[in-house]
Amino acid sequence: MIARLNARRERLVTAALMAPAAAWLFIFLILPFIAILVFAFGERAQAGGYQPAFTFAQFAALPTRAAAFWNTMLLAPVGAFLCLLIAYPVAYFLAVKANPRYRLLLVSLVVVPFWTSLLVRTYAWMFILGSRGIPQLLSIIGLDDIRLINTPFAVLVGIVYGYLPLMIMPIYVSLEKLDRRLLDASSDLGSRPLNTFFRITLPLSLPGVMTGVALVTILLLGEYLIPQLLGGGKVFFIGNALVDLFLQSRNWPFGSAIAVTLVLVVVVVLMSAMRIAFRIAGTRQVDLL
Predict the structure, then answer these.
(1) What is the pLDDT of residue 126?
(2) DSSP-based three-state secondary structure for 189
(3) For residue 200, what is the domain's CATH number?
């Protein structure tokens, strides 16, 4: 009897602790998504906005925004992969090779860019890649007519610069928890450093790698600012299409259909990343969020 009362009390305490977070998620996540889902099956009113209906016409019109989907599905994974290529060596140096005295300082330098607005940093890249930036320097050595701004290259540069810290930190945390005795044992047994890296360090750091890749990719799927400023309206992402549909043409049902599709894509990406991580990492815990 006492055991039952204790168990019931524990459940009540757990429910009370989880209630605020659950209410927050329901009000600010689930309810808005339900509203967007309802809008997606409606029609555009004559003056713009939403008109109640039940039709799949908005989803049938998704191919008209194929360019935005294609750019997002192509550049978002490429940007995440480039971030990974740069972030892993940096995280490895911070976690394994850096002097412990200066490690905290170096990690802080990785976070410093977040102290400045992404808008300001992106405007800085607009000048660097613009006609008075790198192209002007290249023209001095005879390389004329080099266009960097308003291209997919400029968007990728902005993506890597803006999201690189988000890739570095999960990998750093994963490497920082690495048991150094495993590396010492591998070295004592005669394994070469490269072999040790691929057989011990990299597999044990995969949870951090998958966390960084999933985090950056999911955020990039809804990116708006970087394509808008560095792409100059020529490299559209889904986020740019949503802003145009909701604020310019006021076609809320079509914008909602695109938003619902984007959410489904994010869920598929997250579940696929988790499945891949579990297959590669085996029974080790893999935290993507």
Answers:
(1) 92
(2) coil
(3) 1.10.3720.10
Question: Does residue 163 form part of some domain?
Answer: yes
Residue 184: pLDDT over 80: no
108-152: pLDDT as tens digits: 898 888 888 888 999 999 999 988 888 888 888 877 778 889 999
More confident residue, 184 or 220: 220
Give 124's contacts (C-beta < 8 A, 6+ positions apart): none
Contact 212, 159 (CB under 8 A): no
Domain count, the chain: 1
Asked if residue 59 is part of any domain, the answer here is no
Tokens 């450093």 — which residue?
Answer: 193
Share of the chain above pLDDT 70, in %: 94
Instruction: Give the amino acid at 244.
Output: D
How high is the pLDDT of residue 1?
65
Domain assignment of residue 242, yes or no: yes
Determine the pLDDT at residue 287: 46
- HEC assignment per residue over 217-240: HHHHHCCCHHHHHHCCCCCCCHHH
- C-alpha 88 chain-centroid distance: 16
pLDDT value, residue 187: 73
Boundaries of domain holding 233: 65-281
Q: 3-class SS at 43?
A: strand
**Within-domain flag for 252:** yes
